[in-house]
Write a structure and sequence with these properties.
homodimer; alpha+beta; 4-stranded antiparallel β-sheet; DNA-binding
Chain lengths: 223, 223
DNA sequence: CGGTCCCTTGACATTCATCAACGTCGGTGG
DNA sequence: CCACCGACGTTGATGAATGTCAAGGGACCG
């Protein structure tokens, strides 16, 4: 599905440099001096899912997915990471989940050793980061719990919009229809049909397949 | 749906005593001297969801659900807590979710102030607890991502079994069919039909409506 | 008893997954 | 330049799965 058969070793082929890491804004700002920048091509694996990662990551640009491949071959996206989100936290049990860039992405890497030292000094940070990850998963659960596909897609759009920098009353989707389908655990065709249904209902409008404007937010929440 | 219209104040009607809290086994064992025991009747609210809780809780016996009421009146169970599980962690964003005992339950309460002092001294504990909560939510997501209702119910049974103390090759469900339905975001009738389908398929057998024996674990994972 | 949950089953309408076909876009190589 | 190819996106047709409405039985309790 993706151009590069980026294998496990691909991680080491990613471009890392210590020059000018992304803007320091989160609680990890104290670690920015030792942070390392990394760039990823779309579809590339960010770290080897089979061994504990050496770094924590913060997404700066682009989008990242954390997914699990089921026994029947289906792929399920467990988490969608947008700029500002942290990654590498729950890796203890997340072992075996693959983490890939969806679009070309830049990340900032923090050495685990340094992060743990920082957390030792300031444990409130750990709690804040954990609660962010928990909040993402809970929102995901709430979306999956909705009844119809149109509700799920609408809630997904609003959720992504809320997590993106304010851009008027619309969003530019960082993911394909296939990614939406795997995130919502429904088929691609149903995603497409739900989007056209939302359009016909007057809830959204398209300015390009991935550029969506919100016309009636209430109409997006109804099945 | 539940007998006691246990309102917000019901929390203060719960019975608390400092005598012999539940067995100290987790990383919070160091706090057991200051822990307070609490007993809850089935259906009773454990803490007021509208204000930040004063305690952290550990389930000792019984079962607890954390749920969200949707705009359309549906109830969704976001987390199911069994003996040994910790509660009160993600309350920052979980504000507004109700937390109720499913069966009569006993919990151990830890004052937040004391917990935070402990975490200050030993931040690894916080990470361990957070990763447990994240693992529960991820497993929940994986279950919701399954295709057919029979798969979801089967995965739910196996998940509950794995989290319960080993009891041969079966479980005693701590929840009603309605709770399973709200956990899996499907209708009660579908839960019931999925269970009888699993029975007819030879995957499970019943010894009472809530006592289930596993006959063929592989057959439980197939749609 | 009568009431209330809980659980199950049936009948029916709706939604969704699946298979299939087609159009678009961006690259790549003749 | 154009043909080709792959990934993406949409739409249609069809069968399967599920939600909904309805009915009934059983366990428990006042």
């Amino acid at each position: 599905m993706f151009e590069a058969a980026s294998s496990i070793e691909s991680t080491d082929q990613n471009h890392r440099s210590a020059s000018s890491p992304g803007a320091a804004q989160g609680p990890l700002a104290a670690l920015d001096p030792i942070a390392v920048k990394m760039t990823c091509r779309a579809g590339q694996e960010i770290y080897d899912p089979h061994r504990p990662p050496k770094y924590w990551y913060r997404v700066v640009t682009g989008a990242v997915r954390r997914c699990s491949i089921q026994a029947d071959g289906r792929r399920q996206i467990l988490d969608l990471l947008l700029p500002g989100d942290l990654l590498g936290f729950a890796s203890l049990d997340g072992l075996g989940y693959s983490v890939e860039a969806i679009e070309d992405a830049t990340l900032v890497c923090y050495a685990r050793r340094e992060v743990e030292t920082l957390l030792q000094a300031n444990p409130v940070i750990a709690q804040k980061m954990a609660s962010e990850a928990l909040a993402r998963l809970e929102r995901h659960l709430l979306i999956l719990g909705r009844v119809t596909a149109a509700e799920k897609v609408g809630a997904f759009l609003l959720c992504v919009s809320a997590r993106s920098p304010a851009s008027g009353d619309g969003i530019v989707l960082p993911v394909s229809r296939y990614d939406i389908a795997d995130y919502l655990a429904i088929s691609v065709e149903t995603v497409s049909r739900a989007l056209t249904e939302l359009k016909h209902r007057g809830a959204i409008a398209f300015a390009g397949t991935r550029h969506i404007k919100f016309l009636d937010r209430d109409a997006m929440k109804v099945g």
